Amino acid sequence: MADLRVGLIGLGMMGRHHARVIREVDGLELAGVADAQGDPHGVAGGLPVCGSVSELIAQGIDSAVVAVPTAFHEAVALELAEAGIHALIEKPIASSRAEGARIVDAFEARGLVGAVGHIERFNPALQSLRARLEAGDLGQVYQITTRRQGPFPSRIADVGVVKDLATHDIDLTAWLAQSAYHSVHARTTTRSGRQHEDMVTISAELTNGVITSHLVNWLSPMKERITVVTGERGAFIADTATADLTFYENGTVNTQWDSIAAFRGVSEGPVTRFALVKMEPLRAEHEAFRDAVLGRPSGIVTLREGLATLEVAEAVLASAAENSVVLL
């Protein structure tokens, strides 16, 4: 079977990584690139740099990666859908729920494969964690918390920290728990003088009763990417920056105090750090998208899942603006 001809739209920081991985993955051929601003990182190689999406489509592509700023996602995606091109769209799916819904409708109406680049689902630590949760290693899940902090990335200018960074945590939490969000309460602030919020704290509940919290900002001098899942048998800690997964097992408190002799509490137990095969998440994401286009079983983040995540992000912003709990 001939390789899938892939077009890349957007040659910025993420675009250069997509170009590298597309060239590395079996069954894919980087057939064309496009960016109205040129090729600042020199990723095109011997390919001409197209100035428009239509020019790229004319190169004869089967699928495309959309790595332009979020504000342009809708226009680019709709043009690809009209041309019958499958697309992997960087997260978030769009700037607003209305834009995202139009993208979903366009791809579904034409029977095209569409995916959103919520790359954390392809992190080895989180993939292993989800498998262990499904196997019942933790028993009942009580709580999922995340911390995603670091310096401001100057390349992000069109959305705030909620839609850019917190959407990672919203998506991975719903995916790990296999449950949608039921309610959110959030606070945001802007401390850097930029247009959009740069810090957020989120408290939420999922439809299955799991409670969650997310601490996300662009104003920390250190980079932190931590997910903690606590349940009846202990707690898993996944560090997605290093793709490490550790299990802290509950111990048993023994006491001779008669009045509480029947009480079994939680104390420190054995700690296990798992040895994982660590494939680059972006490569795993591209392999999944390739398989989906070819009609094979695949773990892509669907456009509808991406839209659901954006809806939660908008609920977070509404909650912060109104200082109220927002039901989804």
Describe this structure as you would to a colleague:
- Residues 127-236 form the GFO/IDH/MocA-like oxidoreductase domain.
- By secondary structure, the protein is of the alpha/beta class.
- 31% of the residues lie in helices and 29% in strands.
- It has two domains: 4-119 and 283-301, Rossmann fold, CATH 3.40.50; 121-278 and 309-327, Dihydrodipicolinate Reductase, domain 2 (2-Layer Sandwich), CATH 3.30.360.10.
- It contains eight helices and 15 strands.
- The protein has a nine-stranded mixed β-sheet with strand order 14-13-12-11-7-10-9-8-15.
- The protein is globular.
- The mean pLDDT is 94.
Can you summarize this structure?
Residues 127-236 form the GFO/IDH/MocA-like oxidoreductase domain. This protein is α/β, with parallel strands linked by helices. The chain has helices at residues 13-24, 53-57, 73-82, 97-109, 124-134, 161-177, 281-293, 303-322; strands at residues 4-9, 28-34, 49-50, 63-66, 86-90, 114-117, 141-149, 181-189, 199-206, 211-217, 224-231, 234-239, 244-252, 266-273, 326-327.
Fold topology:
Layout lengths: L3 E6 L3 H12 L3 E7 L14 E2 L2 H5 L5 E4 L6 H10 L3 E5 L6 H13 L4 E4 L6 H11 L6 E9 L11 H17 L3 E9 L9 E8 L4 E7 L6 E8 L2 E6 L4 E9 L13 E8 L7 H13 L9 H20 L3 E2 L1
Parallel strand pairs: 1-2, 1-4, 2-3, 4-5, 5-6, 7-10
Antiparallel strand pairs: 7-11, 8-9, 8-15, 9-10, 11-12, 12-13, 13-14
Helix pairs in contact: 3-4, 4-8, 5-6, 6-8
